[in-house]
Design goal:
The chain is mostly helical. The protein is built from five helices and no strands. The protein has two domains: 45 residues, no CATH class; 60 residues, no CATH class.
């Protein structure tokens, strides 16, 4: 239902808004790159599944078997991959700053 709403309402409204504002100068972006700006990455709300552990395990398997990228999994969770990586790096730097050892578990 969300995909339908994005395709039939949000995207056409966005495209009209963007075109109008580029042409009247409200938005200062190069009109020559309009096709690039018309490819937004909509992230509809995602609800947790009944068994989030199985969801996570399925995502891990999909990435390991090259059926999905890490970026796609993070996007499906409603987050931004670059932001997640930056936060992980900040977490690791903070742990190191306060003297915590990095714990890596392998089976």
């Amino acid at each position: 239902m969300q995909r339908w709403f994005i395709d039939t309402v949000i995207t056409p409204v966005f495209e009209g808004w963007l075109e109008t504002n580029l042409l009247n100068g409200t938005i200062n972006l190069p009109a020559a790159k309009m096709s690039k700006f018309l490819k937004p990455d909509w992230k509809p709300r995602r609800w947790a599944w009944v068994d989030p552990l199985k969801d996570q395990q399925a995502s891990i398997l999909a990435v390991e078997n090259h059926l999905k990228s890490k970026r796609q999994v993070v996007s499906e969770m409603g987050s931004d991959y670059e932001s997640v990586l930056r936060e992980i790096k900040q977490d690791e730097e903070l742990a190191e700053d306060v003297g915590l050892e990095k714990v890596i578990t392998e089976e």
